[in-house]
Queue: 2 jobs
Job 1
Amino acid sequence: MTDVSLIGLGPMGIALARALRSKYTLTVWNRTAGRAEPLLNQGTVLAPNALAAVQASPVVLVCVADYAASRAILAAPGVADALRGKVLVQLSTGTPQDARDDWAALGGVAYLDGALLATPSQIGRPDTPLFISGEERALAACRPLLEAVAGNIQYMGEPIGNAAAWDLATLSCMFGAMSGFFHGVRICESEGLKVNAFSQMIGAISPVLGEMISAEGEAIHAGSYGEPESSMATCAGSGRLFVKQAREAGLDASFPDFLMALFDRSLNAGLANERLAAMIKVLRQAA
Ligand SMILES: NC(=O)c1ccc[n+]([C@@H]2O[C@H](COP(=O)([O-])OP(=O)(O)OC[C@H]3O[C@@H](n4cnc5c(N)ncnc54)[C@H](OP(=O)(O)O)[C@@H]3O)[C@@H](O)[C@H]2O)c1
């Protein structure tokens, strides 16, 4: 027996294995066994199949490409039965519905759904965030072990889909900001400005940008969109400048066009004198 078993040795799985084995005895299994090679000369056990990996430890972590891959692995004969009495931590990325389906398919297994807000090189740090949902009792049983991979555990409650919902909402924020950042890079490039000076400046002012996001979130929570410091019409004016500058400099305008389409819908909905957060009213309209 080992302390923990890990199924999946992609870049994230390998990082998890490295963080875990410094404190815990570890069994691993991966569809392509060769990926375990760098781990084996340091005391990690390679199981011959997924069932043997599940049988080897009281806590089982799964981190594969998606829930379909995980489902194929956990549906192998005997695996679901072997999971009873153990804690399964699903760390593959998916939707809230994926988590609910997975949990239902494994009915009776102590199941936690987790989302790592990190790249593989950030695993093992005390500040690395891990969103977790599911039974609190199951989390208590393996919390120190999970803290070895991500020290900043955010428990999102019992509903199993919560961690995936928080994860996708956070990723939406990140990739949305990144898309805007990349268009910002093109603006800098079109004017011969240094890209890394721009990215460093964004990093430095990110707390101020975070404050702005928090303020819009509070407004949506309160349903209060009036008396804006900066109205939708003012913000849409900046959107129009992105479009104009892209045309003037011959840049790809997909980001400005996407943003301006949202502003136009908001203005057409009569939100010109409301704050930016009022855009949520447009997004709430059924597609
Ligand atoms: N990398 C990141 O920055 C990051 C960050 C947060 C979360 N995640 C999540 O972590 C999970 C793993 O990501 P990753 O970066 O390690 O790489 P990945 O390419 O998403 O996943 C690779 C792993 O999935 C396995 N796999 C894929 N299809 C399979 C199938 N049909 N049956 C069995 N195993 C299968 C691979 O096995 P083989 O080796 O045999 O191909 C390998 O173990 C993903 O859900 C990802 O979204 C990743």
Note: The pocket of NAP is lined by residues 8-13, 30-32, 35, 63-66, 69, 72-73, 92-93, 116, 119-120 (CB under 6 Å).
Job 2
Amino acid sequence: MVIKTFNAFLLFLLSFNSFAFTLNTNFAAAFPGEEVVVNLATHDCDNLPYTNDEILSMASEGVNKFWNRVPTSKLKIRRGNHTSVSNDFESGPLCTSNTNGCTANPALSGQTQILMSCNTNSSNFSSNGVLAVTANVNTSGDNIVGSVILLNNRAGSGLANLSRESFISVLAHEIGHAIGLGHSPVTDSLMYFSNIANRVSLGEDDMDGITYLYPREQPTSCGSVAYIQDDYRGGKPIASLLLVIGLVIVALKSKGKALLS
Ligand SMILES: [Zn+2]
């Protein structure tokens, strides 16, 4: 009876606990490996108060401060290199159409991994307050092959007025999009749509989102669980424990369907 009550309570909790994170694509695209590299285009970011090397270092700081410290995620994001790319990355649009989502500019869509690039195209930045735009420009099936982050390098860019810590948070937010996450409506999330000053850590939504896309596999052949109950009789507690596990799995599967629908 105790265990049945616990089952019901667990289901109650699960049914009222909902995901608030969203995904950047409607097919839950994610990088297929466990490591992704962030590169930076070599042209100057002349309207921003940082050198290219400083921007790449801040991206590295951002992923180590936020995304690389989620124990339930297998993904590790690494600092890459200064990368020479075509002028389209400096002055071209990210999307050729925004009807039904971003149709990536074909000139940018051959990228692999994550490429950041300073950009001055007005169609990307409708105002100085649009700090950066990101798209998963290169996908294959439900895998992300490459993502592009364009940083607002127009005169008067709001990026130029941010504190160093906020700049790092913006880069980390855009890298969140680059690995497949959308916006969260929860203000304590890094993936909240608006930049919040002095953010120091991921929110619960961010951790749920990266874990959903990049779950760390659990060991299958080691560890054990002991079931201890004073009135153990005839294996019923074990059966009930298995029922709890089954209900959790069923509940989690049904939550996943709701998320993607
Ligand atoms: Zn965003």
Note: Residues 173, 177, 183, 193 surround zinc ion (CB under 6 Å).
